[in-house]
Amino acid sequence: MTGRRPDSDTVTVEILEHKQAELPISDRQARMLQVAAGSRLTVSPSAAGYSVRATSHVGSVTIPGLVVHVVPKVPVDNVVHLLTWSTHRIAFDHQLATHASQSLTAAVAAWYARMLERALVLGVDHAYDEESDRLVALRGRIDWPAQANAVALPTPISCRYDEWSIDTRVNRIVSAAALALLRNPVVPAQPTFTLRRLLKLLPGVGPLRGTTWPIRAHSSLASTSTMNRLSAWQDSSSAAPAMLRGSAPHGCRPSWWT
Question: Domain range holding 145?
Answer without folding.
Answer: 128-165
